[in-house]
C-alpha cells in the first residue's frame, strides 16, 4: 500500500491511500491519521488493502503531491542511524575524529515534533551555519517491546519513507565534540510525500534494506545516485539496537543515515559534506559550497523500471524571517 | 498553580489541579490534558486560576500521588541540559574526556514518548548496564519561535518539574565516544507527580533557576542534597540555546542536568556516577555500586520551610520481564 497525509487543518492531517502510480488518492476509510494506523495496523490494514485495490483499479481523486504533508507530520520518536560506512569513514578521516569501532550501529535521537512537507520552503536562520542535506531512507515501525532481537524486528516494519535530514555543518562538529549529539545542528527533517509498505518495493526490499538508488540533484544539477543497499546494518538491526533498553512507541521513525557508497567519486553523494570531504582528500580544500538561500534540492528514489515510489522531495532553502 | 495528571485509560490521562499542600485534587475544568493546557495557556489559565483558588480554599478530593502519571506522560520533545559545571568537570576528569569549552550550554535530545510515573517500578534489562539516577529540575515551555533570545524566553516557561533521568553508565561512554549522543544509555525518565507554575516557588525561583536543594535518598539512606541554583546557564538560556535553529513545540521539556555543587564532598550528589567519580579521585577506585534490582531511590525538593512542592519520586528498580 501507499499512503500520504493531506492537510485538513489539524497537526496530523488526514491519512490518504495513494494509487501505485501516485496519480490518484482517496481518504483512508475509517482511519483519520497515520499515527492511528500505525498504532492499530493489524486491525486496520485488511480494509485498507481492499480500498487500495479498488483505488488502483480506478477512482479516487487526482493526487497533487505538492499539497501533501509529511506522511507522519510529527512522530513521538525519530532515531537516525549512520549505517553507510563509506560515509562515516570519510567523515572521520576528513574531520580527524577518532575512528568509531565497527560492529555496533551508530544512532542519534533527533527532533521528531515536526517533519516538513516534501515541497515546502525550508527556513534557516543563517547561511553561515553550513546548510546541508542528507538523503536517507527510513522505516516507520509499530510498537516494539524492549529487548526485541533483530530476527523478530522486521515484522514491526510497517512503512518505508524517504527522508532529507537537514544538517548544519558549522555547528555539527562543535556539538559532536561534546559527546552529547546534535541539537542545533539537526533541525526538522523533510520527508517525501508517500510512505509505502515494504512489499511495494518487490525484490528491491532485500535484507531489510532498500536496494535502489537515491537520486539527488542540487539546483537542477545531478549530485549523486548512491545505492541504498549498502548498509552495514539493516533496518532490522537498527530497530533491535534502538529497542535494547527501551520499548519503541508505535510510529517510531528510524533512518538509515546518509546513503553512501564506497565508489562515491563515481556515483556521487547524498550530502554536500561528503563531496567536500572528497575534495579535501583529493585537493586539500573543499570546493563545493554549502547551500545558500534560494538554493534547491531534489531527492527521488524510483524503481529500476522508473516507476515512482515515494514521490520527490523538492525544496528551496530560505531565510528564517 | 499546581497540576497532576491522573490516569483515565488514555495515554495522556486527565489533567488535575492539586492544592498547594498536595492533599487534594480536582479535575481541571474544560481542559482534558496537560498538553492541551500548554498549547493554549493564555486562554485557559484564568479559569484554572479561579478553580485553583477555590481548591485551596477547600473542596476537591483526596490527592493520592501514588496514582499520578507523569504530569506530561509523553511529550513531543525532551531536551536535557548539563548546566551544573561541577558535575561536568568531574565527569570529564574521571573519564579522561577532552574538556568541553565553557560558554555554550551542553544539551542532548532525549526520548520523549514516555515519562514514567513517580512511583512506578522501573524495569531495566540488565544490572550489568550500570543503572544510575540523575536528579534534575526541568521546565515545560509553550511554543517558542526559532531564534527567540534569552531575554524573551522566560515568559515561555509555564511549569517547573522535578525529574529522574535514568542513565545506563556502562553504555554511556561507548555512545558518547561516537559523538552521536545517547540512545541505549538514556531510556525513559521519571517525573515527580506535580508540576508547578514558577510563582509557586516565590523567591526560590530566581534567575530562571530553582533555588532549592534536591534531596536524594538511595535505599532510605541520604545520598545528596545539592542546591539547584548553581546552574551555569539558567533555563532562559537553555531555551534560547534549544530554539537557535528550530522552533520549540508547546510542551517541550528542558532539563537542567544532574543537580551538582562544587562542594559535592559535603553536600552529596544527585547521581551515583558523580559519587563514584569522587571516590576514584580520592582513592583511585569507585566504591559505591550502581543500582541492583530491588534498590530504591527517593528524590524530593521541598520549600525551605518544608512545604511540599513537586511531591516525591520514589521508585524501585526491577528486572525487565
Helix proportion range of chain A = 10-25%
**CA distance, first residue to last residue of chain A:** 39 Å
Q: Which band does the percent of strand residues of chain A land in?
A: 25-35%
Widest sheet: strand ordering of chain A = 6-5-19-10-11-13-7
Could you please describe the fold and organization of this structure?
By secondary structure, chain A is an alpha+beta fold. Chain A has eight helices and 21 strands. In chain A, the strands form five sheets. In chain A, strands 6-5-19-10-11-13-7 form a seven-stranded mixed sheet, covered by helices on one side. A five-stranded antiparallel sheet of chain A has the order 4-3-2-1-14. Chain A is globular, with a radius of gyration of 19 Å. The mean pLDDT of chain A is 96. Chains A and B meet through strand 6 and helix 5 of A and strand 6 and helix 5 of B.
Q: Which properties best describe this structure?
A:
homodimer, 321 residues, alpha+beta, seven-stranded mixed sheet, five-stranded antiparallel sheet, 21% helix, globular
Element layout with pairings:
The structure is a homodimer of 321-residue chains.
Chain A: E1 2-6, E2 14-18, E3 24-27, H1 34-39, H2 41-57, E4 61-62, E5 78-81, H3 85-94, E6 107-110, E7 115-116, E8 122-124, E9 131-132, E10 135-141, H4 150-153, E11 157-164, E12 167-168, H5 172-177, E13 189-191, E14 195-196, E15 205-206, E16 209-210, E17 213-218, E18 221-227, H6 235-242, E19 252-255, H7 264-267, H8 272-283, E20 296-300, E21 313-319
Parallel strand pairs in A: 5-19, 7-13, 8-21
Antiparallel strand pairs in A: 1-2, 1-14, 2-3, 3-4, 5-6, 9-12, 10-11, 10-19, 11-13, 15-16, 17-18, 17-20, 20-21
Helix pairs in contact in A: 3-8
Amino acid at each position: 500500500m501507499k499512503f500520504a497525509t493531506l492537510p485538513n487543518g489539524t497537526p496530523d492531517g488526514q491519512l490518504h491511500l495513494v494509487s501505485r502510480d501516485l496519480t490518484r488518492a482517496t481518504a483512508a476509510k475509517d482511519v483519520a491519521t497515520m499515527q492511528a494506523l500505525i498504532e492499530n495496523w493489524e486491525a486496520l490494514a485488511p480494509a485498507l488493502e481492499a480500498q487500495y485495490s479498488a483505488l488502483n483499479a480506478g477512482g479516487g481523486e487526482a493526487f497533487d503531491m505538492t499539497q501533501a504533508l509529511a506522511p507522519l507530520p510529527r512522530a513521538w520518536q525519530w532515531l537516525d542511524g549512520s549505517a553507510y560506512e563509506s560515509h562515516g569513514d570519510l567523515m572521520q578521516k576528513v574531520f580527524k575524529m577518532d575512528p568509531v569501532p565497527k560492529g555496533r550501529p551508530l544512532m542519534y535521537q533527533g527532533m521528531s515534533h515536526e517533519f516538513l512537507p516534501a515541497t515546502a520552503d525550508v527556513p534557516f536562520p543563517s547561511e553561515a551555519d553550513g546548510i546541508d542535506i542528507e538523503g536517507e531512507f527510513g522505516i516507520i515501525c509499530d510498537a516494539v517491546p524492549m529487548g526485541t532481537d533483530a530476527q523478530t524486528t522486521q515484522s514491526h516494519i510497517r512503512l518505508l519513507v524517504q527522508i532529507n535530514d537537514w544538517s548544519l555543518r558549522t555547528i555539527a562538529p562543535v556539538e559532536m565534540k561534546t559527546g552529547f549529539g546534535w541539537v542545533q545542528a539537526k533541525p526538522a527533517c523533510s520527508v517525501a510525500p508517500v510512505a509505502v509498505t515494504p512489499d511495494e518495493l518487490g525484490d528491491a526490499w532485500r535484507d531489510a534494506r532498500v536496494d535502489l538508488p537515491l537520486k539527488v540533484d542540487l539546483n537542477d544539477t545531478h549530485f549523486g545516485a548512491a545505492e541504498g543497499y549498502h548498509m552495514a546494518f539493516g533496518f532490522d538491526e537498527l530497530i533491535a539496537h534502538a529497542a535494547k533498553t527501551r520499548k519503541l512507541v508505535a510510529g517510531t521513525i528510524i533512518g538509515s543515515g546518509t546513503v553512501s557508497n564506497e565508489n562515491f567519486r563515481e556515483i556521487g553523494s547524498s550530502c554536500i559534506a561528503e563531496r567536500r570531504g572528497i575534495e579535501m582528500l583529493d585537493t586539500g580544500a573543499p570546493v563545493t559550497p554549502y547551500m545558500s538561500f534560494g538554493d534547491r534540492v531534489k531527492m527521488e528514489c524510483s524503481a529500476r523500471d522508473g516507476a515512482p515510489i515515494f514521490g520527490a522531495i523538492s525544496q528551496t532553502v530560505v531565510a528564517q524571517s
